[in-house]
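Example (one chain per record):
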Amino acid sequence: MQPKQDPSSVSRRTFVAAAAAASAFTIVQPSAVRSAAANSVIELGLIGCGGRGSWITKLFTETGKYRFVACADYFQDRVDAVGEEHKIDKPRRHTGLSGYKKLLASKLDAVVIETPPVFHPQQAMDAVDADKHVYCAKPIAIDAPGCLTISAAGKKATEKKLVFLVDFQTRANEHYRECLRRVRNGDIGRIVMGDARYPWSGGGRAEPSTNPEERLRNWYHAVEISGDFIVEQSIHSLDVATWILDADPVSAVGFGGRKVRPAKGIYDHFAITYAFPDKVLLNFNCIQSIPAVIDEIRARVYGSDGYIDTDYYSDVMVRGKQFYRGRNNNLYTTGTQVNTQEFHQAIVEGKTDNPTVAPSVRSNLTAVLGRDAAYRGGELTLETLIKEGRKLEPDLKGLKA
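Predicted structure:
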């Protein structure tokens, strides 16, 4: 999801599919994709045709290496918009909560999952069971059981020689990658502590609708669908922080609440202190819906010989035994472009080790741990979180199957 926009209210954008470029390639069957030439067109199905779903189709098709042949979304207007744009046959435009299952049963090579986060675990597992490669949006889940389902789906994908990629833009960026390489090589010495934050002026102050379809259409403000904004949005900074620390949190002490959002809505602020192995602390805070806030997605970690400082919208820097700085440029788009290219490369070259899954599970669990600690207003261990297995269940009554 785009860091600076409310995912439930992103305006639909219209793009021209790269049909002319695509026609120069040969469509291959799923069984042949793994050994196909690097220019083979991969047949895609889009699950989730809302704001980011309709936006990301352009990045896939403009490579000339993909063609969308099916789409699914609960809402008819959304599947029709994507279907018309990409000339998808009407019988392959599926609606309803279970429409994606019809898509998975059809002839295609891979799926792009861009639905509300609560649906990601089951849809991803079903896709792997249907022998489809998976490109999945973050967050991968909204609770610990969902994270474990994604972990299992990633492992099953590897066993079945399928590609499973989670779309974090920062991990695809050359400057982030270079800074992390330097940290791993010891440029900042032994890790001491870190801090991360995500202030955002956007996000709105809406109250979840009591109408089932309106609640689903504006899912961002429904905790049981989005997981609250610390999971849905702020995971960006927590993902970078846990990438740098390269460890699972042991526990979290958290607080948060609603000062500007309605009582029945999601929180508008969180303040969390995470404890990591070797007594390493990470202080994290995030806030939304405050006018004139300067937007940041920042993670900074201090070491015995220096520090690494990263921001999604500006610089990525290491000051340590050696100095390095890189300037980010439209990371939301460029990072996704790298991921679409690497997804194709992994498929055609048969690279199914799926290295993005485990770190995505780690950072997602970290976000859920912080949220649940704040909801309780105290300390919570990761072990307890997983053992309790608390699952957020959306009320789907009144929605068409």
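Caption: The domain at 171-331+359-388 is CATH 3.30.360.10 (Dihydrodipicolinate Reductase; domain 2).
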